[in-house]
Amino acid sequence: MRKPKRGEVWLVDLGMVAKIRPCLVLSIPTTDDNDRVLVTLVAHTTSTRSSRFEVSIPTRFLKQGAFDAQNLITIPQVKLIRCLGTLSDEQLNQVTQAIRLWLGLSDS
Q: Is residue 72 part of a domain?
């Protein structure tokens, strides 16, 4: 399996409770050295709540919904099933800004 890249959206097995769902890769690719083979993701949901931490990104490869900045997860890379597509830099920045806000890293 190829290594996931930051900005890619993958179909991910999140277990029985969270199901299989699209997730945006936030972390950089691991190396073959001493890195743990983990990936940090933000989950996409179709059950939106109009939260300020939800970012709707219309793409041809996602159903209508949003990336939920309150749903950050780090899991083993083997849970990733297949790449669905890649967000543009501007789209990735929109999600990153919501995550910064959620984590209190925002300048504003």
A: yes
